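Continuing the series of single-chain predictions for the mutant panel. This is the parent chain; the variants come on the following pages.
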Amino acid sequence: MKRSELYARVWAEPMIRVAADLGLSGPGLAKLCARSGIPTPSRGHWAKLKAGKHSRQPPLPKPELDPNIPLPTPAQRERKERKRAFDEGVRAGVSASSDTKVAPAEGDLGQAVAEPPSLRPVGTNTFALTMADTLDRPHPLVRATAVAVARLPALLKRWERATPMQRGSASLPHRPLLRNGRYELDVPGGLALVASLEAMDWILRFVDALLKGLRGEGVRIERTTREDERVAVLRLAKDGEELVLTPVVEGYKREAVDAEELARLKGEGRWANKWRYWPSGRMSISVQGTERIVNASWSGTPERLEAQLGTMVATCLELMAQQRTHRREREVEQERQRQEAEHQYNLRRQREAREEQLQRASKRRSSTSRSAYCGGSWRWLSRTPISSSSRTRSGPRCGCRSCGRNLRRKVLGDARWVSV
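Parent structure:
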């Protein structure tokens, strides 16, 4: 659309209508007009016209400059509409409350995995998914992690009672790393998580409900390890697309240790840190696709994340569907950049070849010079001897400027005749 055409449309009807026709938002159209130097109606302009009053319309600055203004393509509009519908579904929230409680089963850790819960669509791109109060026939990865978590308190007590020599022996298993008030747990054949002992039970129930919801939508789940990290992650795969689900991490807080207590600890010969850490109770989890732009993350209190369980399942499915489109767009852009680079390379090679030809021609022309003096015979100031056939075929025998100004001679290696 031309700049003058957009100016005429903006002053012909309200901007909100123009923006809707062009696939833009009201603020987006205002920014586009500001960048293009197009004046827009002031506040109350249309109300004044409706009331029969006069409202000034400034002229278009520099009307001779009338370039085309880029507007969103139909594909970009459709992508924006899908994202807007998805955001509206996320804001609609998820009904995560249920009056039915899941009763604990006997030997729940040894039971087979329960069937995936049925997901009922709620609004747009959201599901109603309820988190159980207890682990009832959990997912195999959750079951293996729950066994390790159940043994962790006894292991920590044994570690506290053990002597330094016993701690170094192979009979006592190593305790998980304690960092900033949280334990870093990575269970073989299970999950990896970073949390306090108090939060691990909630994390297991949360991840169990999330994995069952994903499996109910046909998503394959397997444990894997990233090449750049040693922490295990979960690979989510469906229809040839993959996502990586990172471990649940609990945040932490810190405060400075009192100076007197710090001095007392150092006086006792103990290693003392000037900061004191404890868990914050806020959790975070994220998913990352094979394409850099495909990612999502959630963080907050357990209650907030529990209410977003259905949204997380829907977001993972939406990201898998979008990832194929993003990959095609990236491949098209890479092919365009490759062709552009190849074109620029060919142009550079042609320039270099022309410059090389000019340099060789210049060297050939400079290999022969004019005669040094007017003596009635030829005298060449060149290291290469000149044969008689390459001398002039017409004109005087002398080649100096004083008496041979119109002399024509043939340059060595050059088929052209040049005037002296």
